[in-house]
Amino acid sequence: xxxxxxxxxxxxxxxxxxxxxxxxxxxxxxxxxxxxxxxxxxxxxxxxxxxxxxxxxxxxxxxxxxxxxxxxxxxxxxxxxxxxxxxxxxxxxxxxxxxxxxxxxxxxxxxxxxxxxxxxxxxxxxxxxxxxxxxxxxxxxxxxxxxxxxxxxxxxxxxxxxxxxxxxxxxxxxxxxxxxxxxxxxxxxxxxxxxxxxxxxxxxxxxxxxxxxxxxxxxxxxxxxxxxxxxxxxxxxxxxxxxxxxxxxxxxxxxxxxxxxxxxxxxxxxxxxxxxxxxxxxxxxxxxxxxxxxxxxxxxxxxxxxxxxxxxxxxxxxxxxxxxxxxxxxxxxxx
Length: 335
Description:
Blueprint: H1 10-22, E1 31-35, H2 40-56, E2 59-66, H3 73-86, E3 90-95, H4 104-123, E4 127-129, H5 134-146, H6 151-154, E5 160-161, E6 168-170, H7 178-188, H8 204-220, H9 222-253, E7 260-264, H10 265-268, H11 273-284, H12 291-301, E8 309-314, E9 317-321, E10 325-329
Parallel strand pairs: 1-2, 1-4, 2-3, 4-6
Antiparallel strand pairs: 5-6, 7-10, 8-9, 9-10
């Protein structure tokens, strides 16, 4: 069923269009998996992309995960799937296994995105679209600041994540306030359910929303939230620039294959600490709790005593610093 392009809520459609085009999120004729939780953000996203699809020739699919984390989750899953099917979408629905235990939020997220990627692969989708808003980006930036994230982490939720293989992730509503998505749904009388997790202070973003962002907005107005989102975007630009420069330098300076990477000190010494950090991070790879060891190694690099120093990074990975070189020895499990 074709949706009207103009009319009520069109300001949000126009903003999403600008965001999509600015970040090259979607191309003409793309197959798109839309992650629909049943809340106002993803409900708004589905309707906006439906309205635009008549102009852009997109093929839209709906994907929903019933995490089973609330008494209403089964009913929400039934409503989302029936409403989407009635609107003419192909619906992909799954019930998550028992996710009880530590770090519930991270494991639920991992399962959710794994499902979206599976659906995308099966139908040949180019993009997985999620309903993240400007508020989500700001809350993520603040939560990561609390945990000591670097530049890339403080950029929060990026508008687009380009996948090395498979579908990329896109956030067409990343420049829209959360309140605007709810108003959009109310104006167009679109059914939605509030996710209980959004007010559960066990989760970082929920706690930050209530105890940090809300008081800031109350004191300085909604412009303060928009300003923080602008800062996050600038950090993203800076992180991308540093990542690109570090990649070029790594290809020039790093030697070795497999589990051992060598850097000559004369190549590393002139670099600022931010680029040295990225050299070592790339050599070490994606292992947990690596920051302390890398920072200690960076401190040692700034000294000129010439002694041999060893630093345990994580998961059996080590960094050795001598007078002439830096050697990263990765554990067999990380190779």
